[in-house]
Amino acid sequence: AQSVTQLGSHVSVSEGALVLLRCNYSSSVPPYLFWYVQYPNQGLQLLLKYTTGATLVKGINGFEAEFKKSETSFHLTKPSAHMSDAAEYFCAVKNSGGSNNKLTFGKGTVLTVNP
Amino acid sequence: GAVVSQHPSWVICKSGTSVKIECRSLDFQATTMFWYRQFPKQSLMLMATSNEGSKATYEQGVEKDKFLINHASLTLSTLTVTSAHPEDSSFYICSASQFGMEAKNIQYFGAGTRLSVL
């Protein structure tokens, strides 16, 4: 079984400050990891993903995440927050093996950016 | 590219009626589609996985006779909530993925449908 824990249901930062959204996972096999963003009344948009290769992954809108196997973590960061980053962020995990691509999501973190 | 359209975005219905939600992949062929349910302040919970031309696979605890899923073509899947009751009120989200070693790892999501059963 696989699971995802997102620490902090709400994170608030000032515009221009560092954004750090935490995600820890558990998986019995090497995981594939994803971050999605959801703006109000919109669907989930893929920010970035880790499948294999380089553990530091760069995504859209200046976000990046680092896969740390020893810490079972995949935290999302952005050096400087922008007002448009305010949204809800979901971390998700998928088993690398198997024929299906079922995702298991964390509970989400709402990011607020203060002017 | 990779746009998924979900319709309607919001529906209100009376208890006991059935509601159909459509999920379309607009610019790609979706070999697999997924249906999720999201409760307020909670995560997305997978309800079922459907592959084009075959029966959907439901997650444990999801009533397949209650939530009918049809995936008749590579661009359309439908979820029908039969005999809806107030406890079925929720936010339903679909996603779709393409065939292929790498492509199948990515799910593209619709904007969701908010169902309110009176």
| Chains forming the largest contact | A-B, 22 and 24 residues
Structural class of chain A: mainly beta
- Write down how many β-strands of chain A occur, each being a DSSP E stretch of 2 or more residues: 12
Count of helical regions of chain B: 0
Rg measurement of chain A, Å: 14 Å
Q: What does the main sheet of chain A amount to? A: 6 strands, mixed
Gross morphology of chain A: globular
How many strands in all of chain B? Answer: 11
Mean pLDDT of chain B: 90
Radius of gyration of chain B: 14 Å
Order of helices and strands of chain B: EEEEEEEEEEE
Question: How much strand of chain B?
Answer: over 45%
Which structural class do the helices and strands of chain B define?
Answer: mainly beta
Walk me through the topology:
The complex is a heterodimer of chains A (115) and B (118).
Chain A: E1 3-5, E2 10-14, E3 19-21, E4 24-26, E5 31-38, E6 44-50, E7 56-58, E8 64-68, E9 73-78, E10 87-95, E11 104-105, E12 109-114
Parallel strand pairs in A: 2-12
Antiparallel strand pairs in A: 1-4, 3-9, 5-6, 5-10, 7-8, 8-9, 10-11, 10-12
Chain B: E1 4-7, E2 10-13, E3 19-25, E4 32-38, E5 44-51, E6 57-58, E7 67-73, E8 76-81, E9 90-97, E10 108-109, E11 113-117
Parallel strand pairs in B: 2-11
Antiparallel strand pairs in B: 1-3, 3-8, 4-5, 4-9, 5-6, 7-8, 9-10, 9-11
Can you offer a commentary on this structure?
The complex is a heterodimer of chains A (115) and B (118). By secondary structure, chain A is mostly beta strands. Chain A contains no helices and 12 strands. In chain A, strands 2, 5, 6, 10, 11 and 12 form a 6-stranded mixed β-sheet that branches. In chain A, strands 3-9-8-7 form a 4-stranded antiparallel β-sheet, with no helix packed on it. The radius of gyration of chain A is 14 Å and the shape is globular. The termini of chain A are far apart. Chain B is mainly β. Chain B is 0% helix and 51% strand. Chain B is globular and about 40 Å long. Classes of the chains: A mainly beta (115), B mainly beta (118). At the A-B interface, strand 6 and strand 11 of A face strand 5, strand 9 and strand 10 of B.
